[in-house]
Design a protein that fits this description.
Layout (H helix, E strand, L loop, with lengths): L2 H48 L4 E10 L3 E4 L4 E6 L6 E2 L4 E5 L2 H57 L5 H30 L10 H18 L2 E3 L4 E4 L8 E2 L4 E6 L5 E7 L11 E6 L7 E9 L25 E7 L2 H6 L7 E7 L22 H19 L7
Helix pairs in contact: 2-3, 2-4, 2-6, 4-6
Length: 400
């Protein structure tokens, strides 16, 4: 027997021993792998249960805000532009001026008409007083004619007076009474135009006052004011442009009261409720700034419904597409002051849905205005004050 053949049995014995040990190692390896998978599953379940199931998240979210279109209210030619893109403007600040020539002419015409109306009422008041004096004179004439007739009637009975004279006195009394009736009618007509009101509240004066206020406001509207504070964008107006009422000249965007429109998939809306807290991370700042807000409302329909060309689903080649519904998230103004945002910026929104017992839709109408301005209210008050000055200037000195 050769040496090679002598060594072969010993090799086969070692292989047998290793083969006997392999099943135990494999079982341990399988147990370790199974334990790893079980632990990973438990960790994933805990992560889902305590984290992922308590929130919904989307990066299909954009910053929204009011975009106030500035337009002309009266026709005119642009003679000055006082604000440009990116500049800040305050509420009540003049943005554009139009040529005021025509408006000033119409204002002076309305001012003259108001003054004439006041003086006309004064004249009517004097005419009414004159008519009252004529009524008193006619009443005295009636009393005198009646007294003369009564004095001559006994003489007629005693045949001391002729019947012709007495008849003449009777005709005179009738004429005096007719004159009294005419004077009373004229007095009533004179008082009809002024009765029950003073000069300032006379219908003719009030009409002239309204026309003056309209002309005054039209003259003021040659200066186009900013209704809100914000930043100018999309300026399209140029010097010399002939603008018409309603024509957009620029836009003012308030960057203080902003919100986020987060477009969640329809499958994510099940637990979203009004009032739930939310966090917003803008792509502008990344993780350096986290905005905190809350859900203030869910859209009334999907984005495709309100598109210019809504999808026609009732067709044979229909393909199901997951729809999205906009969810509005309010933002904290103090955080916006520290880290200003811009309308249209991309962001990532996470909503905490732990408490899903709230309302999906608003249950009561809002009692507060969404936005308001008092710029135009001040203009109306100034017009009324100017009209009052014109009226006072045309009253008697003792009545001013």
């Amino acid at each position: 027997m050769s040496a090679t053949e002598t060594d072969r049995p010993s090799v086969d014995a070692n292989d047998s021993g290793m083969a006997a040990k392999d099943p135990a190692k494999r079982r341990r390896a399988l147990l370790i792998v199974a334990a790893v998978f079980i632990l990973a599953g438990l960790a994933w379940f805990a992560l889902w249960f305590f984290v992922f199931s308590t929130r919904v998240k989307t990066d299909n979210a954009y910053v929204g805000g009011n975009q106030v279109a500035i337009s002309a209210q009266v026709p005119g030619t642009v003679v000055a532009i006082l604000a440009d893109d990116t500049q800040r403007v305050e509420a009540g600040q003049v943005l554009v001026r139009l040529d005021p020539t025509d408006a000033k002419v119409r204002l002076e015409q309305a001012r003259s008409a108001l003054a004439q109306a006041v003086r006309g009422v004064r004249q009517q008041t004097s005419s009414a007083s004159s008519a009252d004096a004529q009524v008193d004179a006619a009443r005295l004439a009636v009393q005198k004619a009646d007294a003369d007739l009564k004095r001559h009637l006994p003489l007629l009975a005693a045949h001391a007076e002729s019947p012709e004279i007495v008849q003449h006195l009777r005709d005179g009394l009738a004429q005096a009474r007719a004159a009294l009736a005419g004077a009373q009618a004229q007095s009533a007509a004179a008082h009809a135009a002024i009765e029950g009101t003073d000069v300032a509240r006379n219908p003719g004066v009030m009409q002239a006052r309204a026309n003056f206020s309209a002309a005054w406001i039209a003259a003021q509207r040659n200066a186009i004011y900013a209704p809100v504070s914000g930043y100018v964008a999309q300026r399209s107006v140029q010097l010399g442009n002939s603008v018409q009422p309603g024509q957009q000249l620029m836009t003012v965007v308030p960057l203080h009261d902003l919100w986020v429109e987060a477009n969640f998939k329809e499958s994510q809306l099940r637990h979203i409720r009004i009032g739930q807290p939310a966090t917003v991370v803008s792509d502008l700042y990344g993780g350096d700034a986290v905005f905190h807000g809350k859900v203030i409302g869910l859209g009334a329909g999907t984005g495709s419904v309100f598109s210019l060309l809504p999808a026609q689903n009732a067709t044979g080649n229909w393909i199901k597409v997951v729809q999205r519904v906009p969810v509005r998230i309010s933002l904290d103004n103090t955080e916006l002051d520290k880290h200003p945002l811009r309308v249209g910026l991309s962001s990532e929104v996470t909503i905490d849905i732990t408490n899903d017992k709230g309302s999906v839709l608003a249950t009561t109408p809002t009692q507060q205005p969404v936005a308001q301005t008092d710029v135009y209210t001040q203009m109306a008050a100034k017009a009324d004050a100017e009209a009052a000055r014109v009226i006072r200037a045309n009253l008697p000195r003792d009545a001013r």
